[in-house]
C-alpha cells in the first residue's frame, strides 16, 4: 500500500552463481539513490502480461559510498518475479521501484558481537549488514549455509571483507553437498548443516546479537539451535522470504512444517489443509525487534516511591505492574483499560525509569509514564 | 479520512449491469456499468462541463453520453465527442477507476492507479474448493462510520450481549482475549475450552458433547474482516490442538466500504468445511447470520449517534486494545499516504 514508485535503470546485470544474478540499479529520473538501512528491501513493480505484480528483494549492497543499489535475485522455479528479472530484463532497461522498507535492520547503536546466519540466497540482507559492520570495530561471524559452490553467490565479496578486517570478521561457508571441484579447491569450511556442534566449536562464549535470513525450515532449525544454546529470543532478529510469522511459534510446532510446509496437525480433515496457523493465530504476530539495551527486568532491588502518598513499596513479582503494586499498597490510582491503550493511568515520574512489558498505544508525554503496563527498573519516584 | 491506495468492494458482481448507475465510495460519486465485453467500467460520475452525473445520461455502444449536451466518454474516461465544432478540449475527461472482479464481488481501487495490483485483493483460500460450502451473503447499509463496524469485528466480547440467542454461550462473557498485530492488520482471538456449543453452531456441528471453541476476529487494512469460528470436540482444540475429523470451521468474510464518513455499505459471505452442497444449511446460515448482523446494525447506528453527540467523555476498556491498535496503525498509514501524495504533487 502507498509509496511512490520511481524509475531506475538496470546499469549492470551480473550472474553471481548458477541460480543467482545481481542487478545494479541507478536512478533514471535524475533523482538521488534512496536512503536505506542495512537489511531493508526494495519493492519492484513487475509488468507481467496478466497485469503488474509487486515483488520485494533485499538490498545486498553497502548503504553508503555507491552510485547504485544492488539486489541479488535467485531464480525460483515458479517465480513470476524472478523469472521476469532473469529472462526478460536486460542491461539498460528501466524498471519501477518503491523506496526501501522493512524493519529487519542492523542495530547500529549496539556494540555487541554479531552472528549473521544465512541460508542460501538469504545472505543478501546480511551482506548489506556485513558491509556496515566492516566500518565498525565489532566482532562479526558470517556463516553461510548453501548446497555447494555452484549455487553459492557473493562468496568472494564476503571473503574480501573478512580479509581486510584485521581479524574482526570471520566468514565460514557450510556446504551441504559439496562437489568434487569444491573439495579440490577447498571452497568450504564445513560439510553438512549449521548445527549446535559447529556453533559451539566456532563461537567463543559471548553475548551475541543474531540476525537470521533464509528458507523457513532453515530458520526454524537455527532458532532451535540458538535458543538451545541459551541465546535469548530477544537477541535473535530474523526475516522470512515474503510473508512471515513468529519463528518462536513455528519452532514450537512439532515437525510438520519441515515435512511439506503444511502446518496442519494430522487429525484435521483434508478440507482444512489450505488454512495456515488455524489453531494458533498468534503465530502470525509481527516479529519483535530485539530488546532495547539497558532494560533490565525488574528485580528485588527495585522499589517504588509514591511520593504524594508518602508510601514506599519494594517491587514484588507478585505484582505484574506498578499499578497493581500501588493497589496492593492501598492506593487507588486512576485507570481504565489496564493495557496501555487509554493513558488514563499516566502519571509523572520524578526519578528512575520504567520498563514497558506491553507497548503503550501512544507514547506517554515526556516526564510521564503509564503504570498499568510497566515495571520499575531500580528505584522509581512517582507523583502519586 | 480514508486509505486511498487500497481495494474496496464496490458492489456485488450481479449488481452491476449494462445500464448506468451511481455508487458512492469514500465520498466519491462513481458511475458504473458493463461494456459490450461485459467488463465493469467505473468512471468519475460528473461530466467536466456542468457536472451533471454521467449516470443520468445513456450508454452509446461502449461509451457514455452525457444527458445534458451529449459529451461522450470512452471506457478510459477520455472524451471522444463534444459539441462545438469537433475539437475536443484537452480537459474533457473524467477519472477512470481500476476495477477487478473476484469472489463474485466488484473491487475498486480508490488511489493512485499506477500502483493498483489485483494481487493485493484479499486472498480467500477455499473459495472455489468443492470441499467447502458457501452461503453467499448480502449487503446492508449501516448508518455509521466504517471503523465502528471494524471495531465490532475485532470484538469477540460483544457477542455475549448483542447475540445472546445465536452466537453466545456462557464462556463468551469472560474468557481472556489475545491481541496480535500482523503485517496487514490485527487479530483478537481466544480459545474457550470444553464448553457447550452456542445455539447457532449446535445445529450445525457434527459431533455431540462439549467443544473447544476458537473465536478468531481479524481485520486487515483498510477494512476487511475474517471472522473464523472453530468448533472441535473437547480436548482437540487449543493452540497446539490436533483437531479432529469432525472439526467444524466457518470463515466469515466481511468487507466494509465507507460510503461517507457516517455511512457504510457492508458486504459478507461465509465459507464452511462441512456439507458443501447442502442448500438448506446454506439458507439457514444465511438467515441466522443476517439476523445477527441486524442486531449489530441496530447497536452501531445508535453508537454512531451516541459518539457524535456525546456530552461527556467516553472511556476505553482493556477489551478495546485490538480495535485501538488497528485504528492507530490505519491512521498512520493514511498519514503516510497523504505525505507521499503531497510530495508527489510538490
TrEMBL record, chain A:
It catalyses: 2 nitric oxide + NADH + 2 O2 = 2 nitrate + NAD(+) + H(+); 2 nitric oxide + NADPH + 2 O2 = 2 nitrate + NADP(+) + H(+). InterPro entries: 2Fe-2S_ferredoxin-like_sf, 2Fe-2S_ferredoxin-type, 2Fe2S_fd_BS, Benzoxazolinone_Detox_Enz, Beta-grasp_dom_sf, Cbr1-like_FAD-bd_dom, FAD-bd_FR_type, FNR_nucleotide-bd. Pfam families: FAD_binding_6, Fer2, NAD_binding_1. This is nitric oxide dioxygenase. It comes from the Bacteria. In the C-terminal section; belongs to the flavoprotein pyridine nucleotide cytochrome reductase family. Transmembrane segments: none annotated.
From TrEMBL, chain B:
The keyword Oxidoreductase applies. One of its GO terms (molecular function) is oxidoreductase activity. CDD domains: RHO_alpha_C_DMO-like. InterPro entries: Cholesterol_7-desaturase (IPR050584), Rieske_2Fe-2S (IPR017941), Rieske_2Fe-2S_sf (IPR036922), VanA_C_cat (IPR044043). Keywords: 2Fe-2S, Iron, Iron-sulfur, Metal-binding, Oxidoreductase. SUPFAM superfamilies: Bet v1-like, ISP domain. The keyword Oxidoreductase applies. Pfam families: Rieske, VanA_C. Residues 7-108 form the Rieske domain. This is Rieske 2Fe-2S domain-containing protein. It comes from Paracoccus litorisediminis.
